[in-house]
Specification:
Blueprint (H helix, E strand, L loop, with lengths): L2 H17 L3 H5 L12 E5 L4 E2 L2 E5 L3 E6 L8 E2 L14 E5 L4 E6 L7 E7 L1 E3 L12 E7 L6 E7 L5 E7 L5 E6 L5 E7 L2 E2 L3 E3 L5 E7 L2 E7 L6 E8 L4 E9 L5 E5 L6 E9 L6 E4 L3 E4 L1
Parallel strand pairs: 1-4, 3-8
Antiparallel strand pairs: 1-2, 4-6, 5-7, 7-8, 9-10, 10-13, 11-12, 11-14, 14-15, 14-16, 17-18, 18-21, 19-20, 19-22, 22-23, 22-24
């Protein structure tokens, strides 16, 4: 390659590089990288964003993927940024570097709306329930300098109150062991304000289960009239436990399920849950029904 040609090639490559904006130029700069580098995923469906609301740390990237059969846009409601048309299987990503709520919509289908809420601190939702009076670990992430103090607060119905303290580690994580007495909402407070609250269920009741013929009777103690119980069966075709009935406890804190099932016996159990029928508060022993 001649010297003149080599210079031309290098100049062309430099021009191409300059034409591609950096991530900082596209999404802003100056915010620290959040503890988790994985983007926050959002599916762009046929007529809705899923989930429509996401919480993210300062400096995190939200990634929208068009999983529908028609094009969409992801456009800030105030017009400050716009993805342009996103085709089928197309992707748009944007980094958020300032605390606050950012509403957005699809300009092609204005009924599709979503929101990104950006925080300095996030408390991880517990993956299990706690027992009353026993230590339980709460963990979270922060886009704050190492050594920053984080207050852990709980609300069991009378408002939030400080319960514990934690310190942001070098990797941006923090944690504290708390001793809950009842089901409550928990949040972390640091930087510009509190994190979104997460629910920590505390199992403080027992579920007794008895079988007589085709009937299963569940009794919850201490009494909890009006609360929700769910009958589950362990079904091979469902690859595990599957809810088949839901009921509310009567005035005697009882619920009765009649189950006529042909075929072999299957394991059955009853869960005491929150009103959503999914958040477990207590679990009965397992009995076999059917046959």
């Amino acid at each position: 390659m001649t010297g003149r040609r080599a210079v031309a090639v290098v100049a062309a490559i430099a021009g191409l590089v300059a034409a591609v904006p950096s991530a900082a130029a596209q999404h802003g700069h100056g915010a620290p990288e959040p503890p988790s580098a994985a983007p926050v995923p959002v599916d762009v469906g046929f007529d809705a964003f899923a989930p429509a609301h996401v919480d993210a740390l300062v400096g995190a990237t939200v990634r929208w993927t068009n999983v529908s059969v028609r094009p969409h846009t992801v456009t800030a409601q105030d017009g400050s940024w716009d993805s342009g048309r996103i085709g089928v299987d197309g992707v748009y990503a944007r980094r958020f570097d300032a605390v606050g709520s950012v509403p957005y919509l699809c300009t092609l289908h204005p009924g599709m709306r979503g929101e990104v809420s950006v925080h300095d601190v996030l408390l991880d939702a517990p993956s299990d329930h706690a027992a009353p009076g026993r230590p339980f670990p709460l963990r979270g992430r922060a886009a704050l300098p190492a050594g920053t103090e984080v207050a852990i607060e709980a609300d069991a119905g009378d408002g939030f109150a400080a319960v514990a303290e934690a310190t942001v580690a070098a990797d941006g994580t923090f944690g504290a062991d708390v001793v809950p007495e009842t089901t409550a909402r928990w949040r972390a407070v640091a930087g510009s304000g509190p994190s979104p609250a997460v629910l920590l269920p505390v199992v403080d009741r027992e579920v007794a289960l008895a079988r007589r013929g085709h009937a299963l009777t569940a009794v919850v103690s201490p009494p909890a009239p009006g609360m929700t119980v769910v009958l589950q069966l362990r079904l091979r075709e469902r690859f595990g436990w599957w809810p088949v009935r839901r009921a509310r406890l009567d005035d005697r804190s009882r619920a009765r399920f009649v189950l006529r099932r042909r075929g072999g016996h299957v394991p059955a159990r009853v869960l005491l849950t929150l009103g959503d029928g999914a958040t477990e508060l207590a679990r009965s022993r397992t009995l076999h029904v059917g046959g």
